[in-house]
Design brief:
five-stranded antiparallel sheet
Length: 98
């Protein structure tokens, strides 16, 4: 996981965030603070299902508390654009248990 100063390198880039409750939120990182609270713009949540394709719920400008973040990763825009999310099937992630 990128953390603290490492996030500076991905400001204004598209990232994927997995939250402790198993949500996958994708958006443009606009800012963060010392507690790794992050601000995403143009964000959407990807909801996975084994029965239908990935649903993308538009969130827009979105703030995620640092203590609710499990993983932050860069998103390969070219690879992501080549995926047909309507055909992708997957089990939803389970919440993280500490």
């Amino acid at each position: 996981m990128l953390g603290g100063p490492g996030l500076e390198t991905v400001v204004d880039q598209i990232i994927s965030v997995i939250t402790n409750d198993g949500r996958n939120i994708v958006g443009v990182l606009k800012g963060f603070d010392q507690a790794t609270n992050i601000i995403l713009d143009e964000s959407h949540e990807r909801v996975y299902s084994t029965k239908e394709g990935v649903q993308q719920l538009v969130l827009g400008l979105y703030i995620i508390r640092g203590d609710n973040i499990s993983v932050i990763g860069e998103l390969d825009e070219e690879l992501d654009a080549s995926l047909d999310l309507s055909e992708l099937r997957a089990h939803p992630l389970k919440p993280v248990i500490h």
